[in-house]
Specification:
DNA polymerase, domain 1, 6-stranded parallel beta sheet
Length: about 210
């Protein structure tokens, strides 16, 4: 493989927990208790899609104005949570794996639904390791649509078949497969059953991928 495309939250950085806390507060504001099980289904999808799904679970309808206000409030709360993050939020083995890829002359991209991706990469000091970044501000279709990964491959000037995606969410794995890329799941093998391979985390054991 020549190109390596990474999701952000839950793959590179330990920020998924902050999304959950922010969504939990928003859901609580209209009387719904968002559980970790619910949150698993929100991984890898964008803010508006996530809020619409929470409203379905809660059996609630909102005006468009209130909907957008809540989506904005969720983002503001998330930004407050990540205000002081640094490289200690990187998940185990991430930095050494990215450095290994760079030393091997491989191309590295980010493919994330997050609209705050560049900010997180800056604050965790890994932004310079990426050749291209595709985030939620640049795509119109959420995962499992493959748009984000196809754009990342284009940004790397590579064919999709020359790219490998690292994802922690089923929607992301589906998107990678739909793009014609190799899909590596990071996390639970049962949850990520459609992946070509699943790893628990980045470590010296997986540097050959």
């Amino acid at each position: 493989m020549e190109g390596y495309i990474f999701d952000l939250d839950g793959v590179l950085v330990d920020t998924a927990k902050y999304h959950y806390l922010a969504w939990k507060e928003i859901a609580h504001s209209f009387g719904f208790e968002l559980t970790p099980e619910h949150n698993e289904q929100l991984k890898g999808i964008g803010r508006e899609v996530s809020l619409r799904q929470i409203l379905v679970w809660a059996g609630k309808t909102l005006s468009e104005e209130t909907f957008h206000d809540l989506a904005l409030r969720k983002n503001e709360r998330y930004l407050q949570y990540i205000e002081h993050i640094d490289a200690t939020e990187l998940l185990p083995g991430v930095l050494s794996y990215l450095q290994h890829l760079k030393a091997q002359g491989k191309k590295i991209a980010l493919g994330s639904a997050s609209k705050n991706a560049r900010l997180v990469l800056e604050r965790t000091s890994i932004l310079p390791l990426f050749d291209t970044i595709v985030d939620g501000t640049m795509v119109s279709q959420p995962k499992p649509n493959p748009e984000v990964f196809l754009r990342a491959a284009e940004g790397l000037s590579l064919s999709p078949t020359d790219c490998c995606v690292f994802e922690d969410a089923p929607a992301g794995i589906k998107a990678a497969k739909a793009a014609g890329m190799k899909a590596i799941g990071v996390g639970d093998a049962q949850v990520l059953a459609e992946a070509d391979q699943v790893i628990p985390h980045f470590s010296d054991l997986v540097l050959s991928i």
